[in-house]
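Bench notes, bay 3.
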Amino acid sequence: MKTYDFSKIINQINSAEKISLFTHIRPDGDAVGSVLALRLILLKLGKSVSLFIDDVPTPEFLILKGIESINASLPEKTDLAISVDCAEMDRMGNSQSIYKSAKTKINIDHHKTNPRYADYNLIDADASATAEIITALADALDPDILDKDIATNLYVALITDCGNFSYSNTTKNTFLCAARLMEKDIDLSYLNRMFFKNMKREKFEFLKRALNSIRFYADGKVALIIYTVKDVAECKATSFSSDGLIDYALNVEGVEVAISMKEHSENCFKISFRSKEYANVAQAASVFGGGGHAAAAGCMVKGPLEEVAERVVKAACDQLKF
């Protein structure tokens, strides 16, 4: 499994008494699983740990150990602040003020666009998930520190960010990391069922409606899905029901770039881009001040629906190689 130079980070962890952990708003599986795993690791080292997430994780994460600790204890100051899987400090939401006030700040992430905003930054854009880095950190701190709960949290983080080993970001190290976690007798079938084969009826109804909105451009190379707050409400779904929706568009034969356009508020849309083989959608997102990976990126765009649709499709088409 890949190794890193954790020496400076380990020195900071060893010298700190109170440590606070942070991740981004609307946290995904990698963010939740990785930050919960790191909390358990630090607790086993005898540290006082607080966990800040300026949002509420979706219900499937309730099976993870330590989920109840999120925002349970919120000190105004901390010795050491560690951000996990947070590509930009602003994405921490309101909790970033506490992060900024920390005496020392660490930033652990795998997003290429991360601007390295902390005192100590460990960014590996080649990692499929931040979970790969946290797994290596656990072994560097103590080869015996991994247990079933920590491994379960990290495995969930890993599989949700690499699409259960199906996305292009999956590497040899992804499988080596998974093998390391499997040594702790985690329940693979249960975790796969909970995160990949457990669709709620409300999400299914929303999915049917959203897929009816799909539009194709550039001879079928670009697919766009549009959905509104009204769509979510009428299906009695939640704002998280769109998770994974973009993959249905990307999986259509001939589609190279898929775009999901979600109404966030009036005349404001959250845009997600995904590419299949060659298009760099991080470049498309950067047109609107966003970013991410070459194969997965996002941004916010303001304007009337049809105008925004035209602009994001053009940005995607600009990344195609005809």
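Next record in the batch:
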Amino acid sequence: MIKENQKLLNLLQLVVDGIIIGFAFLLAYNLRFDDTWSPLIKHGIIKPPVGYVRPLKDYETMLILLIPSYLVMYRIFGLYDPKRTSGRRSELFGLIKANACGIIYCVAALYLIKEPDFARLFLAIFAATNLIIDYIFRLCVMRVLRKMRRSGVNLKHILLVGYSRTAEGYIDRLRTHPEWGYMVHGILDDRHEIGTSYRDIQIIGKIDKLEELLASNEYDEIAITLGIDEYAKLEKTVAICEKSGVHTKFIPDYNHIIPTKPYTEDLDGLPVIHVRHVPLSSSFNNTIKRLVDIFGAFVALILAAIPMLIVAIIIKVTSPGPLIFRQTRVGLHNREFDMYKFRSMRVQDASEEKKAWTTKDDPRVTPIGRFMRKTNIDELPQIFNVLKGDMSLVGPRPERPFFVDKFKEEIPRYMVKHQVRPGMTGWAQVNGYRGDTSITKRIQCDLYYVENWTLMLDFKILFLTFFGKKVNKNAY
């Protein structure tokens, strides 16, 4: 059984982790204090701090505390959980968090027992050494296990209950990733004939056969993939699985309605699923992003002051009309605001301007305007929109009311983008979806941003705005 294999693997991992911690500790001590090992000390770049160089035996108390505290942290942060479908990045983040908490706990314990005199550089070297060695070891284990699973060893045997689009999607992903090591033995379903198959996986019986199969077979998992119109069978199916003691997971058939990362709230013991999780609905996240916007806008204004002045003069000299073009756009919480841009087109009738896209070789665009649009210089006055709070540096691009009214009837979830501030640049723009491009693809990018916002994603988008290859691809 795969469960017994996992227990053995976890035990071996626990022993190896303890050995790695001890080895990293000794290596860090030698690197810090032994001049035959440490090139920094050998060449006089650093010197052991007076009063902190203690014999290795004096560090034994720390080692006794480190090993159990680290192993507990590894357990808390899920480093011994099955990781068939997780990647290298999640493993690295888990190790970083566990090492950080482990060293903090150890230092605090040493302080409480009045053993504070340990070299800080030694602790830093140990933490880095342990992290690197353990991560390399885990990558090797991960690679070996994935190779074994591709060859048919260490498989997890599962049975699906319900044939639906969710079942097909689940099977597709398992077939795409054989290194996960899942073996699907069949599907139980009431709506299709026995023998019907999808990608060589057959329907082997009706759902009422589940109890019989669980009594005579040793499945590692039951995956419930019922269609959304069959959820009346869910309670009974789960009860049968729980009675047999088999691990059961439910793969919902409403991902086209609820996103992949819904937010669940505990309402006095009653789980409440929020249809969409928006990280920026958090006051803390929203405040952090706003502070970054204000700081970034001031810096951008200082850097762009001279270029903006030059552009303003050129516009005035080459084309009659106002310098700044104001256009009504729809922003946060569906509120309208005036968005500022350098005027890049000839002056036109307001009613026509509201309903027209800018297209390639658009005759309305002035010569200097074409250059500005291609280089995004026409967007610089939006820095003032950011300072006012109408916009953010990064977010979904705001649209005109005419198109908002049009698209909200044609494109599902279009209005979700207005749950965050619109931006000067966004995930859709750095992926090439701007101007006269697929509005559906653009909204998909906007929804991804709304649901997966982080500061690092904002910084990535800003970087790609300046250095990406796609951002100016469809700028007319």
